[in-house]
Design a protein that fits this description.
It contains ten helices and seven strands. The protein is of the alpha+beta class. It folds into two domains: 215 residues, no CATH class; 106 residues, Carboxypeptidase-like, regulatory domain (Immunoglobulin-like). It has a four-stranded antiparallel β-sheet, with helices on one face. Strands 4-1-7 form a three-stranded mixed β-sheet, with no helix packed on it.
Amino acid sequence: MESSEFRTIEMTTNVCQTLQKNNEVMALPGVEPAVNALNSCLTRINDQNNNGIDQRHVLTNQAVEIREKLIGNIKFAYEKIDAFAVSVHNAPLRALVKISLTQLRQLSEIDLINRGKAVIVLITQHKEPLLTLHYNNADSAELNSNLAQYIKIIEDKKACDKVLKGNSIVVKGIIGEIKAIFKDLDVLMLGYKREFPDLVIKYKIERNVKKAARQQRSLHALITNAATANPLANVRVEFYKDEDESKFQLLSQSLSNNINLPQADLIKVTTTLGQFNIKQMAPGVYTALIRKNGFKPQILRIYINAKETFQLIAQMEIADAPSQAHRLS
């Protein structure tokens, strides 16, 4: 499932628990059926997710165990085949079986299976000479058995993954049901606004608090004095959309030559705690100019994406000379 779906499930669980604790709200017409419907959706999601996850975990553990045994079988067979090739001066055959244990462990599932099949063919072709080198039928049988088990486990894992993918599709459908129920629940609660204002306000506040906790900020800034580590207030931070780095170059030249700066796309100023947040900022590459009277300005390149909060952390140094402190206009 996607992270947004996990958040929806978490929110649904929290809302159901909050409403069920308030008997007066639950007594309102239509609320209890809506909460029951939400709980039913949560149960179906849990059942759907549990179906296949445990099985895949077991298969993964089995695959690791059998894989190591199979690698040991292949390596042992290779050593015997290599000894035979040396005795008959067969360089091409030696090249076929030249691989280290580490390299075998790095093979993908399909490549290891193909190696196993290939070595079985070589054993069949050189069965008699290998017997003289103490590679007997029991060794060959163990290799065949472990290879067959490994192939079966890999096939079962693929089938399990197919089931889990189907589960994800089902869960997406259930998430759609949850959103529809929330719309109905919001309409119900708004309908009782005049008759039960305290209950509705309490419900709305609790929902809004949870919603605010989940909201993603685009950027959080913390700017301090490099010498004292104390937060710096009234630091001006100018943001320039700058995919091609042209604004970065222009700002560097402007500061060096003490000429007028270009107009910023966004300007923020730190609080007394040396911080500020930007809730919504278009994703992309920006150049940030950080400046405050009496301090050396800084120019940074930052990248904003929709999924993570960018942490803009800067420590400003006191300017040694007036020329190093670009005056704020």
